Predict the 3D structure of the following.
Amino acid sequence: MRQAVIGSQAMVVSPHYLASAAGARMLERGGNAYDAAVAVSAALAVVYPHMTGLGGDSFWLGWHHLEGRVRGYNASGRAGSRCSIEAFAGEEAIPTRGIRSSITVPGMVDGWAAVHGEYGRLPWAEVLAPAIGYAEDGFPMSPDQHAHTAAHRQMLAATPETAAVYLPGGEPAVAGERFRQPALARTLRRIAERGRDEFYEGETAGMIADAMTSGGGLLTADDLAAHRGDWVTPVTGSYRGYELYQMPPNSQGFAGIMTLQMLERFDLPAVEHGSYEYYQLCVEALKRSFRDRNRYLTDPACAEVPLARLLSREYAAELAATIDLSRASDEDAVSLGSDTAYAAVVDSDGNAVSFIQSLYFEYGSGVVAGESGVLLQNRGSFFSLDPQHINSLQPGKRTFHTLMPAMACRAGKPAILYGTQGGEGQPQTQTAIFTRMVDYGMDPQQAINAPRWVWGRTWGEQTRELKLESRVAPEVRAALAAAGHQVRMVGAYDGIMGHAHAIVRDDYGFLQGGSDPRCDGAAIAW
């Protein structure tokens, strides 16, 4: 069982120890939290390629000590100019794999450039150097990457460029073997030398556009060139003296705030942690926030999301009053991918960055764009082809996005940075670890280690199961089933629960970090 890492000055947490080391290296060289965060993000794009990459999206929350405010950057891409409902005529849904599933522009590199350009201290090329080294020289294949590669071998083998990278010699690399990505290294080196525009208008953009043309894809060179992310104002709420910050729509972040504000209506600390009542309250509050999320979440440029009402304390009380402690409510769920990587950094000046990135499904679309080494996301496959649906596909539109990095402040300064991989599970795991820290006094590692749950469909499953880790007490499982939940037990530390990480500034001014034992992550402090 992992224990919390405690530092006096700075902290880095991420789902891969080499990415955490990349961030720590930037801080040691005099960089700040923003430099370290971009270095972690770029390294994750190399050492965790089944979970994230240059062909995906990211969302960023940051607090800079000279500004004293939380600010967000939405680095998610929009649907291409040719990506319309009509383009999929005769199909019931957008494909979830293949070149036609990649219909939104990758926002990742733009996010790096925006965050680093606004707040970074070190040279751009220095921040990307660890990622380039991992791609060029190789790194030890993790057991997690090997398992996911083996599970998706057939899909990866369908595209020659993809197979050449992830199935060297026709088979997945074994855990511990040196895994190199020379084409990706060359792309990262070009970006380091030429800047952000290399990816959107340069040689790399040309490779992506050519792959689209030759493979029957829909994104164009003009779509890539037109892309820009946005600096945004986070959505806010409160919980027991903490100021809560989440990314605004098209992120599902508001669901995390809604859930906590419902739970604040109950005396949660008086409820035994891990009891039936604890799980019942959390799950039922989440179901209600999901109902509104599914009803309203879309690109706010295309439709209004009524955040003032959804995040009001009056509405939280109204929803909380409908929770029945004795039975499960009958709510529907949506199928969401879980391929994501969350990380966070705090530096010695107090600067704090909470960020998350994704390809949507494991290995995204399954298509590497030509000789670029860039694996393209399939995030746009979540758009609906129903023109009346709130998340209907339109050219230039951003889709409903699961990514939701979180930050909580006290007296205007960052106190808790937290987040997780896991699609539908993100608001659920955030709720679990936050309430465990705030209501039950757990340190971040204890909160992450404790048994977790996830309710709802995952990856196309047609059930509304409440999955519980096997460490949940038998009498609690039985009580939840008796209340009407479709209970299914999973492994003791099951990867389906996501990969959570957190940084907490404690009452003594020290930084406590936790990383998930369900992944290859690490917390590094000094």
Remarks:
- The CA atoms of residues 107 and 494 lie 30 Å apart.
- The first strand starts at residue 5 and ends at 7.
